[in-house]
Predict the structure of DNA helicase UvrD.
Amino acid sequence: ALIICPHAWTPWYGIYGANSGYDSLEEAFGNLAKYILAVETGLSSSPAMNWRISDLDRRAIVSFSDAHSPKKLGREATVFSGNFKDEVTFNDIAGAISERFLGKNSGRLKISYTIEFHPEEGKYHYTGHRSCKVVQSPEETRTKGIICHVCGKSLTVGVEHRVDELAHGREPLKAVKKISEHGVVGYYHPTDPTRPPYIMTVPLHEILAEALSTGVASKKVDALYESLITEFGTEFNVLLKTDLEAVAKTAGERVVEGLKKVRSGEIVVNPGYDGVFGVVKIWPSPDEKKDATVRSNQPSLF
């Protein structure tokens, strides 16, 4: 068996969530915590945020995807690598995930990297109350508290604030950026080379929708999405690997510009809160750029 705590930071049900009642795996599971070898980040946290938590120093940090609907499958993923000719087994996957905790790998795979949402796009990244449209950064929450100033009810404590609480004074880490041959930024632990790196991307439907100035669920977006997948095989191929000149022949220069921005991380994300997804802006307005600059001048993860 392999036990992993999924969407670890979700306020309501995640093991580290603000409303879970627990601050550590040992507190939750007692002497059974030694059997939990990894946690899954969820959409609202990144590996760099999890690197701050001492409880996870010896545990793997992985990313997977909820199976809520076909279009949302594979929004996040863990990529394994290894040398083998026959089929991969459960033991190979379990060996790779448990390697950090056990100090050995009984399989033929290793965790190569993880594919992540921008954590700000997750629907619990910031603290807030959607009914009153109240949104607070961790800095604002430390000043204003967790009571809604509009209605007096409790705010839903965001993941970034909760990470700050459980980091117990560990400062945010400045991940080292490395750019792949395809222009994709990888984020690496600054001092621990045994930690797998990660990359961040945006779902292809969202990129196409903004490029075409239409809705994510529009027929126009669906048609172009299907054309790209038919031509290049998978969504991750288009997002991360395909030559952009080839993409331009199918999708046009505007889509290629969007893919370049997403690969390099040159986008703005208005953080999600209290069940409201964050909003990605690949082509932000001047005001949105200004707001993002203000946020980037606050203590940052990257």
